[in-house]
Specification:
The complex is a heterodimer of chains A (124) and B (108).
Chain A: E1 3-6, E2 10-12, E3 18-25, E4 34-39, E5 46-51, E6 58-60, E7 68-73, E8 78-83, E9 92-99, E10 111-114, E11 118-122
Parallel strand pairs in A: 2-11
Antiparallel strand pairs in A: 1-3, 3-8, 4-5, 4-9, 5-6, 7-8, 9-10, 9-11
Chain B: E1 4-7, E2 10-13, E3 19-25, E4 34-39, E5 46-50, E6 54-55, E7 63-68, E8 71-76, E9 86-91, E10 98-99, E11 103-107
Classes of the chains: A mainly beta (124), B mainly beta (108).
Chain lengths: 124, 108
């Protein structure tokens, strides 16, 4: 069965960077786009971007351009999301979410499977 | 960028009742690229509906989606205790990640 297991909670200071991992299992890792979505405390869902695990190609939401970097390591079926220049408003739960459809070249945008979430707290 | 507005913000209903949730887009959603997710406290969202009306794997048939263009609806025919949660719509056509603000379905 499809499983996405994320790394543990992080506490970072303002101005620092954080890197969250998402290890996938139960399917062909390179065949499905992976998305990153965050949720601030008590707030809604916000899409940050996506990565094609096959090519490494990425698309980022305009809001995070220049601050977010998504990468992957196909040898261990893991994707990463790094967010730099953290501010208090970046305090949120960060989710990875796998696309619904097998496609090596394009994403449906439908987030069918989700990781358990990683709480990132930005505080001095 | 398309903006999705969900209403009502909160829906107070009793188990067994019918729930009707609305999602309105600021411009037409191409090819009904509209999904619905359910989120319970402390849990990740779960995909319910995609393509406006197709149920995801394992989703009970009491959940149904309808609509096209700018107006979409999620209907829960008879609320079960486990259905009380927050529901989000998402447009995945032109822009991959636009979510609505959510509707909370609470026990009356």
């Amino acid at each position: 069965q499809v499983q996405l297991v994320q790394s543990g909670a992080e506490v970072e200071q303002p101005g620092a960077s954080v890197k969250v991992s998402c290890k996938a299992s139960g399917y062909t890792f390179t065949g499905y786009y992976m998305h990153w979505v965050r949720q601030a405390p008590g707030q809604g869902l916000e899409w940050m971007g996506r990565i094609n695990p096959n090519s490494g190609g990425t698309n980022y939401a305009q809001k995070f351009q220049g601050r977010v970097t998504m990468t992957r390591d196909t040898s261990i079926s893991t994707v990463y999301m790094e967010l730099s220049r953290l501010v208090s408003d970046d305090t949120a739960v960060y989710y990875c979410a796998r696309d619904l459809h097998l496609n090596y070249y394009d994403s449906s945008g439908i987030k069918a499977y989700w990781g358990q979430g990683t709480l990132v707290t930005v505080s001095s | 960028e398309i903006v999705l507005t969900q209403s009502p913000g909160t829906l107070s209903l009793s188990p067994g009742e019918r729930a009707t949730l609305s999602c309105r887009a600021s411009q037409s959603v191409s090819s009904s690229y509209l999904a619905w997710y359910q989120q319970k406290p402390g849990q990740a969202p779960r995909l319910l509906i995609y393509g406006a009306s197709s149920r995801a794997t394992g989703i009970p048939d009491r959940f149904s989606g309808s609509g096209s263009g700018t107006d979409f609806t999620l209907t829960i025919s008879r609320l079960e205790p486990e259905d009380f949660a927050v529901y989000y719509c998402q447009q995945y056509g032109g822009s991959p990640g636009v979510f609505g603000g959510g509707t909370k379905v609470e026990i009356k």
